[in-house]
Write a sequence for this structure.
């Protein structure tokens, strides 16, 4: 049974799994022998990060950064804040940033500036979902799982006011929930 607040399921658990395995295979080839630092952007990326890293058959290290720009809104404020920084130095490391979704692009553009300043060797982005229509800054992911339509989606890590992250599928929320 789908959650009663969900209007429509866009991607099932099986579809997400397939896309993740495909990305994992590509990234295994890309990062073989490089011991990348795989950086999950909390909290949205948690589900994708744990599944994607297990689909990467090469040595790697995991770290997390917690940033937020949305608060309780469905629109990015553009004011990105670091709530938790990395434990690891990025200097001279190959970085793979893992995101659940790119929307305006502001969160990642902020992170990339920080990692460049901290002298990372290389920086690449993998995102499960890309909502290209909403881009407000010039930012492209290196690896995209699924291009999503311009709708507010939840599930598989994605929330609305911290809810729905645990849904195993990705769906569109009924308008009456956030209006
Ligand atoms: O491209 P943008 O417009 O910056 O939006 C994308 C970001 O917004 C969401 O995170 P959020 O800040 O809501 O925090 P969360 O990951 O804890 O849900 C999402 O997980 C991305 O990190
Ligand atoms: O569509 C979305 N859903 C949940 N969180 C988000 N953060 C940016 N876009 C979204
Ligand atoms: Mg996030």
């Amino acid at each position: 049974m789908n959650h009663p607040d969900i209007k429509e399921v866009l991607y099932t658990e099986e579809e997400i799994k397939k896309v993740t395995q495909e990305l994992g295979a590509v990234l295994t080839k890309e990062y073989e022998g490089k011991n990348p630092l795989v950086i999950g952007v909390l909290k949205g990326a948690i589900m994708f990060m744990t599944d994607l890293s297990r689909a990467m058959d090469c040595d790697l290290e995991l770290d997390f950064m917690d940033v937020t720009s949305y608060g309780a809104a469905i629109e990015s404020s553009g004011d990105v804040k670091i709530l938790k920084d990395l434990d690891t130095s990025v200097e001279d490391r190959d970085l793979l940033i893992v995101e659940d979704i790119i929307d305006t692009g502001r969160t990642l553009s902020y992170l990339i500036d920080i990692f460049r300043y901290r002298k990372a060797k290389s920086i690449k982005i993998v995102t499960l979902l890309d909502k290209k229509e909403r881009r407000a800054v010039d930012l492209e992911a290196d690896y995209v799982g699924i291009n999503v339509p311009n709708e507010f989606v939840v599930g598989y890590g994605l929330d609305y006011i911290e809810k729905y992250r645990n849904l195993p599928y990705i769906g569109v929320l009924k308008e009456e929930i956030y209006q």
Q: What stands out?
A: The helical segments are 13-31, 46-54, 106-117, 175-178. The longest helix spans residues 13-31.
